[in-house]
Amino acid sequence: MIRTLIASVAVIAFFAGLPTPSLAQDYKVAVANLIDTEIRGWSQSDEVVSAVKGQNETSISLSQSDIDTQDKKWRAETKGGDQKMINAVLSNSLSTYLKGVKEKAEGKYTEIFVMDMKGLNVGQSDITSDYWQGDEAKWQQSYGIGPEGVLIDEVEFDESTQTYQSQVSIAVVDPSTGKAIGAVTVGVNVEMLE
After folding, report:
1. What is the pTM of this model?
2. 59: which strand partners?
3. Do 16 and 24 form a contact (C-beta atoms < 8 A)?
4. Could you give the CA distance from residue 99 to residue 129 in angstroms, rounded to a whole number?
5. Which residues pair with 123 in a beta bridge?
6. Which domain holds residue 111?
7. Facing residues of 124 across strands?
8. What CATH number corresponds to the domain at position 46?
9. Could you give the CA distance from residue 194 to residue 38 in angstroms, rounded to a whole number?
10. Cα angle at 115 between 141 and 98, to 5 degrees?
C-alpha cells in the first residue's frame, strides 16, 4: 500500500500539471511511445533474434522438470558461491549487446533481459532473480500473446536501482516468419521519460 502510494506520488510529480484522472493514461502513452521509437528497434535486431533462435533450438526439447531444475540452480547461484550458470549467460554475446544498449540509454533502462520460447533467459544486462520467466506475466503477455504481445507494468519503486520503474515486455519476432520466438523485458526509469 505504501509502495503504491509512493509510486503514485512519483508519477504525479513526474506528470506535474496534468489532471489526475489522465495520469495513468498519459504514462502508458509515454511508455508506448518509447516502445515504438526505441525498444522495438533494438529488440528486433539481428543480435537478439539470432540468439533467441539459437537457444530455442536447444530449449525446445526441455521438459518442465528440466526447466525447474535449471531455475532452481540459477536461484541458488544468486545467493552466492559458484555462479557458473549465471556467468555463462552474463558473458555471452547477447548479454554484451544488451549491456551496451543499457549503457547508451544513459539511465533510462534499469535492466534488460531476453527470454526464449520457454521463458528461459537468453541474455541480460544484469542478474535476474530467476532463470525461468515462463510463469510470469512478462512472458505470458508478450510471447504468449504472439507477435503483437506487449505488457506495460505499473510503476513500482525498484530497491536495487533506487528508481521508479515500469517493466515493459514485448515479443521478439522472427522477421522471416513474422512469428513470436521469445520476449524482451526492459526496466524503464519513468523519471527519465519525456
Report:
1. 0.86
2. none
3. no
4. 17
5. 114
6. 2-192
7. 113
8. 3.30.450.20
9. 13
10. 120
